[in-house]
């Protein structure tokens, strides 16, 4: 297929040496893209494929990985190249053989995430937008975190939900929650920390040496609690991870309340992507949050 010729050529340009694909095998992929492992000349790469129009999504993913790599705090797959042709768009990454997590690896992941969160910017947001799952994620920089979370996170997903036909109680209670956001932040001033942005257990792995790796990010600068909250949303990470994180960079006691505010963003995004039961879950979360303020 011509797309593989284009990919091989782009890799060759990126590594400054001719590259020929000698083997290619499908690699399951994640929720959004098709994935392959390719090999040639003793080198291995991980390739994500999607429709031609998805090129900006891959550009943003590569930029996010590069941003994390630059912070020198936690390992990510190095982005090699990205591009698009008539048949599709692609992102080529360093290929990493993942192994099962050990307790030691989990502790190291906690410490590495704490290191990454100590990398900060002047404002919340990022220099470019990206996607969360397949949904656009707006990162327009703001000095005020509450305004950022209200407008670009919860408000954005609520507006999208309304456009998808989810109005009524969800929208009314959601709008009430947006007005009451400051009540969750009394005595707490988050810093704009470098965030992975989509950190669930499927987006972290360990090398054969036990080094933690995070991948498939939706990078922006925001309250570090938002990253921690997401780790708890779908099953959670091992207790060693949380203990090591807290030891390296202690969490504020108000995290226990705010984490639901942060996870509401992802639940609303799941409603917008997949519909169904996520509506009831989002309504329940909003009601519980409103009951607290
Ligand atoms: P998607 O964007 O479609 O959700 P992911 O980036 O989450 O895809 O990757 C899907 C799976 O592929 C991951 O769970 C992981 O096991 C594997 N994977 C991701 N990146 C790499 C990589 N650089 N090298 C090897 N395997 C990878």
List the keywords.
binds adenosine-5'-diphosphate, 11 strands, 2 domains, alpha+beta, globular, two-stranded antiparallel ribbon, 9 helices, 293 residues, Aminoglycoside 3'-phosphotransferase, Chain: A, domain 2, Phosphorylase Kinase, domain 1, five-stranded antiparallel sheet
Write the layout of secondary structure elements.
Layout (H helix, E strand, L loop, with lengths): L1 H14 L7 E4 L7 E7 L2 E8 L4 H17 L7 E7 L2 E7 L8 H15 L12 E3 L2 E3 L7 H19 L4 H12 L13 E3 L8 E3 L5 E3 L5 E3 L1 H10 L5 H10 L6 H20 L3 H15 L1
Antiparallel strand pairs: 1-2, 2-3, 3-5, 4-5, 6-7, 8-11, 9-10
Describe the structure.
It is a single chain. α4 packs parallel to α8. The longest helix is centred in the last third of the chain and has 20 residues. The mean pLDDT is 96. It is built from nine helices and eleven strands. It is globular and about 60 Å long. The protein folds into two domains: 93 residues, Phosphorylase Kinase, domain 1, CATH 3.30.200; 188 residues, Alpha-Beta Complex (Aminoglycoside 3'-phosphotransferase, Chain: A, domain 2), CATH 3.90.1200. The protein is 45% helix and 17% strand. With 293 residues, the protein is an alpha+beta fold. The strands form four sheets. Strands 1-2-3-5-4 form a five-stranded antiparallel beta sheet, sandwiched between helices. Strands 6-7 form a two-stranded antiparallel sheet. The structure holds adenosine-5'-diphosphate. The site of adenosine-5'-diphosphate has 18 residues, from β5.
């Amino acid at each position: 297929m011509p797309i593989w010729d284009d990919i091989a050529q782009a890799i060759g340009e990126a590594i400054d040496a001719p590259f020929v694909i000698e083997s290619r095998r499908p690699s399951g992929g994640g929720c959004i893209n098709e994935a392959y492992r390719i090999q040639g000349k003793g080198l291995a790469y991980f390739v994500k494929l999607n429709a031609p129009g998805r090129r900006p999504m891959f550009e943003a993913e590569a930029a996010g990985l590069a941003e994390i790599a630059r912070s020198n705090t936690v390992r990510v797959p190095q982005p090699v190249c990205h591009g698009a042709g008539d048949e599709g768009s692609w992102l080529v990454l360093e290929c990493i053989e993942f192994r099962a997590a050990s307790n030691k690896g989990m502790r190291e992941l906690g410490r590495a995430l704490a290191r990454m969160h100590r990398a900060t910017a002047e404002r919340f947001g990022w220099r470019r937008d990206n996607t969360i799952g397949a949904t656009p994620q707006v990162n327009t920089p703001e000095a005020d975190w509450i305004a950022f979370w209200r407008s670009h996170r919860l408000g954005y997903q609520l507006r999208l939900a309304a456009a998808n036909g989810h109005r009524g109680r969800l929208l009314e209670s959601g709008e009430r929650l947006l007005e009451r956001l400051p009540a969750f932040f009394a005595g707490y001033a988050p810093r704009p920390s470098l965030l992975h942005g989509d950190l669930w257990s499927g987006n972290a792995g360990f090398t054969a040496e036990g080094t933690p790796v995070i991948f498939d990010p939706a990078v922006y600068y925001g309250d570090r609690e938002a990253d921690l909250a997401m780790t708890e949303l779908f099953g959670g990470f091992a207790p060693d991870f949380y203990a090591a994180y807290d030891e390296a960079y202690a969490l504020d006691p108000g995290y226990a309340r705010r984490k639901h505010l942060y996870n509401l963003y992802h639940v609303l995004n799941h409603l917008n992507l997949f519909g169904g039961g996520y509506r009831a879950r989002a309504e329940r979360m909003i009601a519980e949050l409103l009951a607290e303020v």
